[in-house]
Amino acid sequence: MGNEDIKPTFHMYLLQIDPDKAGGDIQVLKQKLSDKGVTNIPHFGPLYRFKVVSDMGYDSDEIAKTCPVCEEVFYRRFTHLPLYGLSKEQLAYMADAILESVAEMQAGK
After folding, report:
1. Is 47 part of a structural domain of the chain?
2. For a designed S-S bond to 101, which of 1, 32, 58, 65 qualifies (C-beta 3.0 to 4.6 A apart)?
3. Tens of pLDDT along the chain (109 residues)?
4. Domain count, the chain
5. What is the spatial distance between Cα 16 and Cα 18, in angstroms, rounded to a whole number?
C-alpha cells in the first residue's frame, strides 16, 4: 500500500487468467472486455517482439521459439487494466465485466 518513503503509483492492475479454467485465453477475454467498454493496456511485451530488435537484424519469430513460457504468459494469460482516475462505480463496472466475460467464455459464448 505504500508509506511515507514508498509511494506506489497504482496506475494499473495485472490480471492473470488460467485459459483452461476461463474457457479461453486472454485474447478472447480482452476482446470481450473491449466490447463492454473496458480498456486494456498493452503495456508490456516480450522485448524480442519490439521493432527495434528486428531492425537490429534479429528474427523475432525464431527467438520466440526459444521462449515458450514468455509466449504463453504474454499472449495467453496476462493483460493490464487501468486503475488510475476511475471512480468506485467504474471500478465496479470493470470487475463485473471481467466476471461476466469469463462466465461467457466458460459457457462457450
Report:
1. yes
2. 32
3. 678 888 776 666 889 999 999 999 999 999 999 999 998 877 678 899 999 999 999 999 999 999 999 999 989 999 988 877 788 999 999 999 999 999 999 999 9
4. 1
5. 7
Strand partners, 80: 14
Decide: 17 and 29 in contact? Cβ < 8 Å.
yes
**Residue 12 belongs to some domain of the structure:** no
Q: What is the pTM of this model?
A: 0.80
Whether 18 and 102 have beta carbons less than 8 Å apart is answered as no
For residue 2 the three cell numbers come to 505504500
Residue 45: inside a domain: yes
